[in-house]
Amino acid sequence: MLAADLRLGIIGTDTSHVTAFTQILNDPESPDHVPGARVVAAFKGGSPDLESSATRVDKFAEELRAKWHVEFAGDIPALCRKVDAVLLESVDGRVHLEQVKAVFAARKPVFIDKPLAATLEDAREIARLAKQAGVPWFSASSYRFGEIGTSLKFADTIGAITWGPGPLEEHHPLELAWYAIHPIELLYTLMGRGCEEVTRIFTPDADEIVGRWKGGRIGSVRALRPYGPEGAIVIRTNQQVVRSSAKPVEGYRPLLVEIVKFFQTRQPPVSNEETLEIFAFMDAAQRSKTAGGLPMKLR
Fold this sequence. Notes:
The chain is α/β, with parallel strands linked by helices. Helices cover 34% and strands 23% of the residues. It has a seven-stranded mixed sheet, covered by helices on one side.
């Protein structure tokens, strides 16, 4: 490890992100290697009532320990004492608020993987506590920094349509935060902030979520179940239509470049305000579904 490398700690070993991220950061021979930081410690975590957590947490923890020689801490405060910055990776958004409190107390910058939280209220409380502690944080989907998100950003965008996977998870009351956060964040990447009203049409196989932005711009998301390809269409001034190539998202390297840069500069690449509006968008969509598809204002 170079002297200049930041020491990173992982919270939650119940997602494939932890092994993928560690390989990209820790293996200089990897074609996707991102220099400047290494994963050196982890806290296992895990949610016994969430199948995707309980069935994977030990497997990924063992890979971190055996392959990458990551040291394990008994609790989050102990982890924070070993590292310069934190990757909060727990797959269960319900536990993020409680877990991140110890990170804020230790004054460590933190990337919070999707979903930031399981409710809008938890997301706002994370932001409040971070501001109170003076600790920088950000959360983002890898879609934001992929080829589609970066190639279709235009100053004159008047509308956009995105699509991608949208499976649901029964323990997350804000349903779209579990996985549809990916195509929704892609929509915000292309449209920016300013949505005022959301309508959601739900079927077992897909959701259609339409947002009305300030000034009359319209953006929509199709969340596909169980999974599906991702893509986007952007409508520009004078009705010029630009379509994505619909290539698969090209791995995690672009996201990790931004994460390492954030830890080095403490400047988030996505504003906390935009992240919170994305959660307000999903909250309005949840209320629209409950109301049978009626439009709902963002709270």
